[in-house]
Amino acid sequence: MKRILILGGGFGGLATAHRLKQKLAADDEVVLVDQRAYFMVGFRKTWALVGVSPLEAGQRPLDRLTQIGVQVIRDSVTAIDPKARTAEVGDRRIEADAVVVASAPNLRPRPCQACNSTPTTYTIPRKSLAPHRPSGNFAVADY
């Protein structure tokens, strides 16, 4: 039995969870971690801004993933160890055979204690990284 740990319950995390449950053996474990209890459909934010519908209309509970066999943990990820394939989630350490980081960038990163400074966050269009990353954006924190 394998365990795949997905960190993030946005578009990337949901798509990954769905696809893994389709492709992996039935007894393989897929665990998704997000601090929110819901997924927010992105375009609904615009509709809320212009008064077409409330934000809540675009929210879907992450717990619905349990219907397809995904374990959902609602907590914060405080550390990731890629070599050990582990993540600190709340007050526990979760080990996995693979870790997928599908979280949104933190636009207000905390200061680095070891660096004694606050990072600057850059958003880089993925099309500039073509052909490897054809769409979307990602963020890099630079200390």
Short structural summary:
With about 140 residues, the protein is of the alpha/beta class. It folds into 2 domains: about 5-105, FAD/NAD(P)-binding domain (3-Layer(bba) Sandwich), CATH 3.50.50; about 105-143, no CATH class. It has 2 helices and 11 strands.
List keywords for this structure.
single chain; 143 residues; alpha/beta; FAD/NAD(P)-binding domain; four-stranded parallel sheet; three-stranded antiparallel sheet; 36% strand; disordered C terminus
Describe the structure.
Strand 7 and strand 8 form a beta hairpin. The protein folds into two domains: 102 residues, FAD/NAD(P)-binding domain; 38 residues, no CATH class. A four-stranded parallel sheet has the order 5-2-1-9, covered by helices on one side. A three-stranded antiparallel sheet has the order 6-7-8, with no helix packed on it. The chain has a two-stranded antiparallel sheet with strand order 3-4. It has 143 residues and is an alpha/beta fold. The chain contains two helices and eleven strands.
User: In which range does the helix fraction lie?
Assistant: 10-25%
pLDDT average, as an integer?
78
Look at the helices and sheets and give the structural class. Answer: alpha/beta
By CATH, the architecture of the largest domain is named 3-Layer(bba) Sandwich
Describe the secondary structure blueprint for this structure.
Layout: E1 3-7, H1 11-23, E2 29-34, E3 38-40, H2 42-49, E4 59-61, E5 70-74, E6 77-81, E7 86-89, E8 92-95, E9 98-101, E10 120-125, E11 137-142
Parallel strand pairs: 1-2, 1-9, 2-5
Antiparallel strand pairs: 3-4, 6-7, 7-8, 10-11
